[in-house]
């Protein structure tokens, strides 16, 4: 019979083994992409597999910008992502404050409708939404990709922030009311400073979703000069199918901003999610 201490040790070893195995499944494709971006086309598919190139082909990254206007795609994606992040953080926090801190008739019904909207896939509302934007003349522009973020920011983000606002004691609001503060002053001077971790989570998720969005730009953008990095990468794949080293270099360039944003905001991620889901 194994002792309790031995069983605990064996359990930990099994857990670590499973975690390491799962990590390898995630890391190996990333390593393959990076090493392929620094190789020649011949080296990529050598058998047995060659993990380290004989010579690092940094020129692959330079050539990506020569064969396609990738800098333009980067600029477009950063412009869209910045405005979407700003709009989502602002409007979702305002909506969440109204649903969590202000009592008004029908508040729970409105919140239930917002939650119900999360069950509708993007593909279901795609056609009527596209027809609406086309009717008012905003197709082939960034407006359909940016404007929705300034009118609520998204049901999930509203839910996330509302859950956090519900955990803040109402004593703060009551004390501010006694001092003559308005809802705007309470929101900007008391609530927002406390909710920095949750707002950081909203910003992080919004940036990643916007940066990686493919279907939205594909539907609304026709001019190649307005393409985002997701569309540019797909165009690169379709135009240079035999240039695998350039495809991998382009994929690495697309991934870099996401990694940088995650590194900057990772300390807020766990804290924000944990603090946002304590109470309902």
From TrEMBL:
It comes from the Bacteria. Keywords: Cell membrane, Membrane, Transmembrane, Transmembrane helix, Transport. It is found in: Cell membrane. GO terms for biological process: transmembrane transport. GO terms for cellular component: plasma membrane. InterPro entries: MetI-like (IPR000515), MetI-like_sf (IPR035906). It is a multi-pass membrane protein. The chain crosses the membrane at residues 12-32, 78-100, 109-133, 145-165, 186-208, 244-265. Residues 74-265 form the ABC transmembrane type-1 domain. Belongs to the binding-protein-dependent transport system permease family. PANTHER family: ABC TRANSPORTER PERMEASE PROTEIN MG189-RELATED, ABC TRANSPORTER PERMEASE PROTEIN MG189-RELATED-RELATED. This is Carbohydrate ABC transporter membrane protein 2 (CUT1 family). The lineage of its organism: Bacteria, Bacillati, Bacillota, Clostridia, Lachnospirales.
């Amino acid at each position: 019979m194994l002792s309790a201490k031995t069983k605990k040790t064996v359990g930990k070893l099994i857990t670590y083994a499973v975690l390491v195995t799962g990590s390898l499944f995630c890391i190996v494709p990333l390593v393959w992409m990076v090493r392929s971006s620094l190789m020649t086309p011949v080296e990529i598919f050598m058998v047995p597999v060659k993990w380290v190139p004989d010579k690092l082909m940094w020129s692959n990254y330079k050539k990506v910008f020569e064969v396609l206007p990738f800098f333009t795609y980067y600029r477009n994606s950063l412009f869209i992502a910045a405005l979407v992040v700003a709009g989502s953080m602002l409007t979702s926090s305002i909506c969440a404050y109204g649903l969590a801190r202000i009592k008004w008739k029908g508040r729970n019904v409105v919140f239930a409708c917002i939650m119900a909207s999360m069950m509708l896939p993007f593909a279901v509302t795609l056609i009527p939404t596209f027809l609406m934007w086309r009717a008012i003349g905003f197709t082939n522009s960034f407006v359909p990709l940016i404007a929705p973020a300034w009118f609520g920011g998204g049901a999930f983000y509203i839910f996330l922030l509302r859950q956090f606002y519900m955990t803040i004691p109402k004593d703060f609001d009551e004390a501010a009311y006694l001092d003559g503060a308005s809802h705007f002053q309470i929101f900007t001077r008391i609530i927002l400073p406390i909710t920095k971790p949750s707002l950081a989570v909203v910003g992080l998720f919004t940036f990643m979703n916007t940066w990686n969005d493919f279907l939205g730009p594909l539907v609304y953008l026709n001019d190649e000069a307005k393409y985002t990095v997701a569309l540019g990468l797909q165009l690169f794949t379709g135009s240079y199918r035999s240039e695998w080293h350039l495809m991998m270099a382009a994929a690495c360039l697309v991934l870099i901003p996401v990694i940088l944003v995650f590194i900057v905001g990772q300390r807020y991620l766990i804290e924000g999610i944990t603090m946002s889901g304590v109470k309902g």
